[in-house]
Design brief:
Blueprint: H1 2-34, E1 40-45, E2 52-53, E3 59-71, H2 81-88, H3 92-105, E4 111-117, H4 119-127, E5 135-145, H5 151-154, E6 156-159, H6 162-167, E7 176-179, H7 181-185, H8 187-190, E8 195-201, E9 207-210, E10 226-228, H9 232-241, E11 247-253, E12 258-265, H10 278-286, H11 297-300, H12 310-319, E13 329-337, E14 340-350, H13 352-358, H14 361-373, H15 378-390, H16 413-419, H17 444-455, E15 459-461, E16 466-469, E17 481-483, H18 491-503, E18 518-530, E19 533-547, E20 554-560, H19 570-583, H20 589-596, H21 601-609
Parallel strand pairs: 2-10
Antiparallel strand pairs: 1-8, 2-3, 3-4, 3-5, 6-7, 8-9, 10-16, 11-12, 11-20, 13-14, 15-17, 18-19, 19-20
Helix pairs in contact: 9-19, 12-14, 13-18, 15-16
Membrane topology: Single-pass membrane protein
Pfam families: PBP_dimer (PF03717), Transpeptidase (PF00905)
Subcellular location: Cell membrane; Membrane
């Protein structure tokens, strides 16, 4: 036992010494570096953000040099404030506000005083910087947009705020972060890794070289480049077609779920949110509460789907075996139920095919009625119908890789039991659901995804905008197939009906020679509140399509607010964008001229002017 005491003591003392050395050389140094140590100056080296390309390899977003004026409040000495303000073009009040903000952050640590100087402003300040102790220049990079479209997809770069810093210790005051769009979604890949240098200072506050010979210094690493699924050519074309209009367009490749175009109108030039005017420009865009250019209508706007919803009514009717291809309903300009009447523009007997290409309200009202009444109670029927809809990705967040989103609305029996007393409603009470005018709401991306599922005859992939990340693999959820509850055998007759919409139906004037397009026109009632009163506005124009009929390469959904009816505005836009994508040319120059020259600004102005709106029924 005594023999073991001495070796144990030696081992204990040795471990204690090693632990102390580790603390003094490693832990203690780290605490020194993290503290507000006046003897050590921290200098950050900011990397370039990753570049952004489109699916064809076209450069969309690069970088440009930018310069921030940094300040360490405690080091300011003998400052001629007026000369300083004159040089950087700010007022004395602005100067005081910025200095006070820097002091609140830390008197000893650097923070951004004036961000994003251009080369000319930088040169002017750099020439006289020696006169302004406590201030120095920090070089960064800002976004340099190679295109003037796609702002809603890209997002923008802005300075972090205190809440962001508290949430993520990677960021410090003055750091830049991606907001909205792919800049936010893929921030951790795009931002890279900033480098840090620790500079030792003497008692006179002069730099005397790297701290600990630079063993704690790190080098910056440029952000990862990303390739988007976007086709910038049809994105640009779609934005041109939507000038002087409001609404959203989404185009997706059905076989992959890759988003080809994501258009929100009105939009803005992404370059507006770069440089010293960024804050001013953002405020102007944000405060435009009428046009809402920052509001991504393709992802956020929830619209009644109108007649394109009849495609789903038909598929559910077939799956539930309440109709087949030969089932015929007779239409007398509408559908009577109780003492009410749903108007229709047709008359005569309609089979499934004719019901689709003629967009007969009566046909789909009868189909919906049969779906609900198949079950012992209306509640069971509505819930079965609702479950079919949800299998298409409706009524919930879709899981795509862009920050904003809305669930839309797919009603269940619980909703109607709340509106009416339990058992106090039946199929005809909610018959407007049959034609997409009930409580169902969809975003443009949801409706486009429905078209992908139809084009694929029963399945879809989660829509996504990322195609490739340098040195990384994309999330496997974007390559996972989602099956609907509709059997494959029921899609061909519905697809044929959509094909005949172009051949002999409501879109027969929108044909494109050489391309077999399947589509569906839509007109949706449009209501808003003006001075507390519910007012009906001019109807929305809606159109959905995919092409070619066999082996589809593109699916599209177009919503144009106050656009009158489906074939008037939305339909031509869909045909033009399909032709542009598939052939890279336009033969329907008549449609192109019509849409490029059309404006709905007078319609939107009626909300303020009080002029009457056009009601199509």
């Amino acid at each position: 036992m005594r023999k073991a005491i001495l070796p144990s003591l030696i081992i204990f003392v040795t471990l204690a010494i090693l632990a102390r050395l580790f603390y003094l050389q490693i832990i203690d140094d780290e605490y020194k570096l993290k503290s507000e140590n006046n003897a050590i100056k921290i200098v950050y080296e900011y990397p370039e953000r990753g570049y952004i390309y489109d699916r064809k390899g076209k450069l969309l977003v690069a970088n440009q040099p930018s310069y921030d004026i940094m300040v360490v409040p405690r080091e300011i000495k003998n400052l001629d404030t007026l000369k300083f303000c004159e040089l950087v073009d700010i007022t004395k009040e602005e100067f005081d506000k910025k200095i006070n903000k820097a002091i609140v952050y830390s008197p000893r640590l650097p923070s951004v005083f004036l961000p994003q100087l251009n080369k000319k402003e930088f040169a002017a300040f750099q020439e006289k910087i020696r006169k302004f102790e406590g201030f120095y220049i920090q070089k960064r990079s800002l976004r340099d947009y190679q295109v003037n479209v796609g702002a809603n997809v890209f997002g923008f770069i802005t300075q972090v705020n205190p809440a962001m810093i508290e949430k993520n210790p990677y960021y410090r005051s003055g750091d830049l972060i991606g907001r909205q769009g792919v800049e936010e979604q893929y921030e951790e890949f795009l931002r890279g890794k900033k480098g840090v240098k620790y500079i030792q200072r003497d008692k006179f506050n002069r730099d005397i070289g790297p701290y600990k010979e630079g063993i704690f210094d790190t080098i910056s690493k440029q952000g990862d480049d990303i390739t988007l699924t976007l086709d910038i050519d049809i994105q640009k074309y779609g934005e041109e077609l939507m000038k002087n209009k409001r609404g959203g367009i989404v185009a997706i490749e059905p076989q992959t779920g890759e988003i080809l175009a994501l258009i929100s109108a009105p939009t803005y030039d992404p370059a507006l949110l770069v440089g010293r005017q960024r804050s001013k420009n953002y405020t102007q865009l944000y405060n435009d509460s009428i046009a809402k250019p920052l509001y991504d209508r393709g992802l956020l706007a929830e619209y009644p789907p109108g007649s394109p919803f009849k495609i789903l009514t038909a598929l559910i009717g077939l799956q539930e075996e309440v109709i087949d291809e030969q089932t015929t309903f007779f239409c007398r300009r509408g559908f009577s139920y109780g003492n009410r009447f749903m108007k229709c523009h047709d008359s005569g007997g309609f089979s499934l095919n004719a019901g689709i290409y003629s967009s007969c309200n009566t046909y789909f009202a009868n189909t919906y009625k049969k779906i609900i009444e198949k079950y012992p109670k209306p509640a069971y029927g509505v819930d079965a119908w609702s479950n079919h809809l949800k299998s298409f990705g409706l009524g919930n967040f879709m899981g795509y890789d862009l920050p904003p989103g809305r669930k839309g609305n797919v009603p269940t029996s619980k909703l109607y039991d709340k509106y009416y007393s339990a058992g106090g409603w039946k199929s005809t009470t909610i018959i407007s659901n049959s034609i997409g005018q009930g409580e169902v709401l969809m975003t443009p991306i949801q409706l486009c995804n429905v078209m992908c599922a139809v084009a694929n005859q029963g399945y879809y992939y989660t829509p996504h905008v990322i195609k490739k990340i340098k040195d990384h693999t994309i999330d496997k959820k974007f390559t996972t197939k989602h099956q609907t509850t509709i059997d494959k055998q029921y899609f061909p007759p519905v697809i044929q009906g959509m094909f005949d919409v172009y051949n002999k139906g409501t879109a027969s004037r929108l044909q494109v020679k050489g391309i077999e397009i399947c589509g569906k026109t839509g007109t949706a009632e449009n209501f808003t509140k003006i001075n507390g009163q519910r007012v009906q506005l001019t109807d929305h124009s809606i159109f959905v399509a995919f092409a070619p009929k066999d082996n589809p390469k593109i699916a599209i959904a177009v919503f144009v607010e106050n656009g009158y009816w489906g074939a008037r505005i939305a339909g031509p836009i869909a045909s033009l964008m399909i032709e542009k994508y598939l052939t890279d040319k336009i033969t329907r120059t008549d449609l192109e001229k019509k849409i490029l020259n059309s404006s709905l600004e007078s319609e939107y102005a009626k909300v303020l002017s009080g002029e009457p709106f056009r009601i199509n029924h």
